[in-house]
Design a protein that fits this description.
By secondary structure, the chain is of the alpha/beta class. The chain contains 13 helices and 13 strands. Strands 3-2-1-4-5-6-7 form a seven-stranded mixed β-sheet, with helices on both faces.
């Protein structure tokens, strides 16, 4: 079986980019003859069997669209199956395909997206479903439920849940960290659904009650980020770092007392699990996919409960024993999310579809 994965979306930040990079790297190590993995990674249709560091894809949304609908569609002619890692069909291709749906937040809350982006995402999902994928893969049961709520015609039996993986702690080399003022860390795009303003209010209340802990915020600006950034920049004790290098992020994880993820919607939730894999205690919100990914290995709170978040911040800042308990629970939890398992389940699915 010859399987094509258009992996140009691996250059993107956020969950989709992380998913694409992880799946391709894991599949490239797991696939065995007579199966063949064809990974389309470059703007000129360059083929590779694995994703290289410094991967470059076509620039901009228009460039990616043209690339998908020309180069990727052309390469699909010589493949038995195409795995599309986002709800963006190859409109000119008739090849059988598996469709991964990371999340459908743009259907639940279109107001969180630029209007043109929300319309485009809805249109592409509709086009993809109309082309009748041989299977649909979701990153979580939550994403599956939300997809079926909006598109009940799909049918539950057509949708599989295959969890992404997390790099295990043993594979991470801890960087050297200069200890300065203690801090906790949030890693998320700056946009309304990530709920920074609620956490800011909880942080403000905690400082009024004696908290001696800074808050470092990592993430590039997203839609409607301006008022959020203005509020964060004004607050004493908050350091907005924007987009940082992978090396800088590792150092920030290594130095954090804990991480906080108050998101209102997640299709999987990579940052909390990435923190757990590094032995960092975690607070995150109840609801969405985080319930099934972090489980009981994190403190989970209602994303609108300012007082609850304030109390949790104060407690974790002072309670080393609780941080150590969560550290151990988190390291155990992430063992469930291995890229090798993801690749194995995908290969089983490909063979089932090709039988």
């Amino acid at each position: 079986m010859r399987i094509l994965i258009p992996a140009h979306l691996g250059v993107l930040r956020g969950g989709v980019g992380t998913l694409v990079r992880g799946v391709v790297e894991a599949l490239s190590q797991a696939i065995r003859q007579p199966d063949e993995l064809v990974v389309l990674t470059g703007p000129r249709g360059r083929l590779a069997t694995r994703v290289m560091r410094g991967l470059r894809g076509p620039a901009g949304g228009v460039g990616r669209l043209v690339y998908e609908q020309s180069v990727a569609a052309r390469m699909a002619r010589d493949c038995d199956l195409v795995h599309l890692m986002d709800a963006r069909p190859l409109l000119a291709s008739r090849a059988p395909f598996v469709l991964t749906v990371h999340d459908v937040t743009y259907l639940d809350h279109p107001e969180w997206f630029p209007p043109t982006s929300a319309r485009y995402k809805r249109m592409m999902l509709s086009r993809a479903l109309a082309k009748r994928p041989t299977a649909i893969v979701c990153d979580s049961e939550y994403s599956k439920r939300r997809l079926l709520e909006h598109r009940p015609e799909v049918g539950e039996g057509e949708v599989r849940v295959i969890y992404p993986g997390i790099t295990p702690a043993a594979a991470i080399v801890p960087p050297s960290v200069e200890r300065a003022r203690p801090y906790f860390l949030t890693v998320a795009v700056i946009e309304p659904r990530k709920n920074h303003l609620m956490l800011l209010e909880a942080f403000r209340h905690a400082r009024q009650q004696g908290l001696e802990l800074d808050w470092k915020v990592v993430g590039e600006p997203g839609h409607l980020s301006e008022p959020i950034l203005e509020a964060l920049h004004r607050e004493p004790g908050v350091e907005v770092l924007g987009r940082v290098s992978p090396e800088a992020l590792e150092a920030l994880f290594a130095g954090a007392l804990f991480t906080a993820t108050p998101s209102l919607a997640e299709g999987f939730g990579f940052p909390p699990l990435e923190a757990m894999a590094r032995g960092v205690a975690t607070i995150c919100s109840l609801g969405t996919a985080l319930d099934e990914t972090v489980g009981d290995a994190a403190i989970r709170l209602d994303p609108f409960d300012v007082d609850g978040w304030c109390e949790a911040i104060l407690d974790l800042a002072a309670n080393e024993a609780e941080r150590e308990r969560l550290r151990a629970a988190g390291l155990a939890r992430v063992e469930r999310f291995r890229w090798e398992r993801t690749a194995s389940e995908l290969i089983d699915l490909y063979h089932e579809l090709g039988a």
